[in-house]
């Protein structure tokens, strides 16, 4: 599932492709992917322009020139592509937004959605989201106070969108590795020093992943050289049996509350 770095990469790249272009046509191939009748959805969008793309956690919010919003959550298997029909991935598209000379394709939205909402409705929809890791108000001290006193594993805490938004399976493991903490360590057992180390690891891993284009390998456009560039830089995620880049011990895979997790049993600790 796309996480914060993947959605931030999409946000930057799609902004370069479609901002301020009049929407000429909209095709809805799956009504369950939208929140209103297809006819109304199409009528509301044709002639409009996307003037800004915002990311909130794992969501993208497309700001329209009439004040409306398109709220996107890709969930598992979802992706976007911008280009011509002959260039796009050979997969079913649920929604196509056509501009002059190019189309924005929403693909794999079996679990995801693209909803047309007002600005207020978007705020209401996302009201329960935890702070973004890059929110200026999420200082190191606030991060520590947010996590101190909580119970549960480090992994399940990091992927809980109500606590901190944007982190999922991949980057929770990468952050734990960078902080030299096991993903199954109990949060209530961590010292303040460990929590501060975790904050630094979170910011550095996510920054590096954004700069590398995230781990999802399918490009947004035919000329996209950025998307997926971080996949080969993952230190533990999906690296079961490979030697740890820090100490050489084999990376192991486990399961924590139904979520797969990867870590080094030698240089990641429980304190």
Automatic annotation (TrEMBL):
Monomer. Its EC number is 3.2.2.23, 4.2.99.18. The keyword Lyase applies. Belongs to the FPG family. GO terms for molecular function: class I DNA-(apurinic or apyrimidinic site) endonuclease activity; oxidized purine nucleobase lesion DNA N-glycosylase activity. It catalyses: 2'-deoxyribonucleotide-(2'-deoxyribose 5'-phosphate)-2'-deoxyribonucleotide-DNA = a 3'-end 2'-deoxyribonucleotide-(2,3-dehydro-2,3-deoxyribose 5'-phosphate)-DNA + a 5'-end 5'-phospho-2'-deoxyribonucleoside-DNA + H(+); Hydrolysis of DNA containing ring-opened 7-methylguanine residues, releasing 2,6-diamino-4-hydroxy-5-(N-methyl)formamidopyrimidine. This is Formamidopyrimidine-DNA glycosylase. InterPro entries: FPG_cat, FPG_Glyclase, FPG_N, H2TH_FPG, Ribosomal_uS13-like_H2TH, Znf_DNA_glyclase/AP_lyase, Znf_FPG/IleRS. Residues 2-135 form the Formamidopyrimidine-DNA glycosylase catalytic domain. Keywords: DNA damage, DNA repair, DNA-binding, Glycosidase, Hydrolase, Lyase, Metal-binding, Multifunctional enzyme, Zinc, Zinc-finger. It comes from Paenibacillus sediminis. Its cofactor is Zn(2+). It holds the Pfam family Fapy_DNA_glyco.
